[in-house]
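Hi Prof. W.,

I finally got the Lipopolysaccharide biosynthesis glycosyltransferase prediction working! I wasn't sure whether to trim anything, so I left the full sequence exactly as given:
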Amino acid sequence: MKYRFCTCFDRNYLVTGLTLFRSLLRSVPDFVLYAAALDEEAYRLLQEWGDARLVPVRLSEIEEADPEFAACRPGRSRAEYCFTLSPVLPLFLFRRFPEAETLNYLDADLFFYRDPEPLYRELGERSILICPHRFPESLRWRERFGIYNVAYQIYRRTPECFRLLERWRRQCIDWCFDRVEPERFADQKYLNEWPSLSADVAVSQHAGADVGPWNWMTLDWRKAEDGSWNPSGEPLLFYHYQGCRFLMSGVLCHNLGSYGTRMPGELRDYLYGGYGRKWLETRELLMRRFPREEFPLAMRANRTGFSIFRGVLSGLRHHNLMWCRGVGAPTASL
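And this is what came out:
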């Protein structure tokens, strides 16, 4: 089957978004990735990247197609406006690309290790698949932000899928803010009610799907003969590198300590060291392809020396840092 993925990112997250794309190239045999470019610079660079499997879409096109969505922009932060896009994007793409029978939304900081075909088997004939956070008991309080993680969904072109997406769109247009209230948080907490609203919603039980810094410790990790690591007897499909970023040359903030845990060194090096090296590889490809452009190592191009220093101190305090210097280089905790 041909997979149709979608994601969104701006110029600052271009390296991250293209690292996701390159992981799909290695793991998925036949696909297209629709990328909503959140600024014109990102759109231009994606166009010039020139791969038919990567289809950029201007944010302005989505706004023209959905004026109610566009009208939200002045009253929302940049992040909140992106959250509001979550239901709008698949609805737009289903209408723009009538040949798409399914759409698979991906956050830009996911990285694929294998074909997600097992999740389509879980979906079966149903209309939507969502992934639970699967917090350990010590982090169960984080369910106040949502039982399900909005980073990964599969949508099938059915009336029931459209009904739930339109309901979610209305909810996000009415209220989508980066704060917790009893029944809502950003775009994510609205998903809590989906399984009770429709029997056509599948909840993934796959141990290798949407693994991240908040749930890796609930899984039984084993190293395979080929050097890969797999959780609880299942293949690792994709990992969510939430909060993972370079602070400066060689210093990667993996964000694991923010969840109060320490990952065993060999597993951390396979996951975070491997991801960091792939991210650096993508950046190097971009710098060669666009020699007149700048692709800062730190995601925020305008970071000052003091803010970087403060980030390093915070990372050390929370045990969030590791060395990561590039392809073939060793990694270690700081």
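The two ends are 44 Å apart (CA to CA). Does that look reasonable to you?

Thanks,
D.
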